[in-house]
Each structure stands twice: as C-alpha cells, then as structure tokens.
Amino acid sequence: MITGQDLILACSAIGAGLALIAGVGPGIGQGIAAGHAAAAVGRNPGAKSEITSTMLLGQAVAETTGLYGLAVAIILLFVKPLT
To answer: Where is the site labelled Reversibly protonated during proton transport (predicted)?
Structure first.
C-alpha cells in the first residue's frame, strides 16, 4: 500500500528525471554553435579570437538552462519534502 510519504518520494524522483531533460536543449544548441563557429573560422581565420570569444559567451548563457535543471533535480532528490 502506498502511503503519502511514498507518493511524495516517487513524485520527487519522477520530477528529478524530468528536470534533467532540460540538459538536452543546451547540448544540442552548444553543438550547433560550435559547428557554426568552426565554419566561420574556416571562412575567416583572422577573426578566430573574436569568433571564439563570442561562441564561448553564447555557450555559457545557454548552459545556464541545463544547470538550473540539474539544480532542480538535485534539490528534488536530496531535500526531503514535507518530512
């Protein structure tokens, strides 16, 4: 028989798994950005430092979404709600 505490723990685990799906978007976006940056450097090697710095700044901003999802997952797994 499922108690209220068991249901809360199960929902926390499911929520943590769903929160980690947030890591898929930044991974895809960063891969696309790196590919476009590599193509841009191939077209204009003289602008390598400017392209690289802009790409890294964009990837750092995109990564925050994945980090927020990871933080939510860790909170759901390790912080005991309603106990």
So the answer is: 63
Q: Could you report the per-residue pLDDT of 13-60, keeping only the tens digit for each?
A: 999 999 989 889 888 988 999 999 999 999 999 999 999 999 999 899
- Give the 3-state secondary structure of residue 32: helix
Q: Environment class of residue 73 by beta-carbon count within 10 Å: exposed (0-12), middle (13-18) or buried (19+)?
A: buried
In the chain, the domains with their CATH numbers are: 23-78 (1.20.20.10)
Q: What is the pTM of this model?
A: 0.73
CA 61/CA 78 separation, integer angstroms: 26
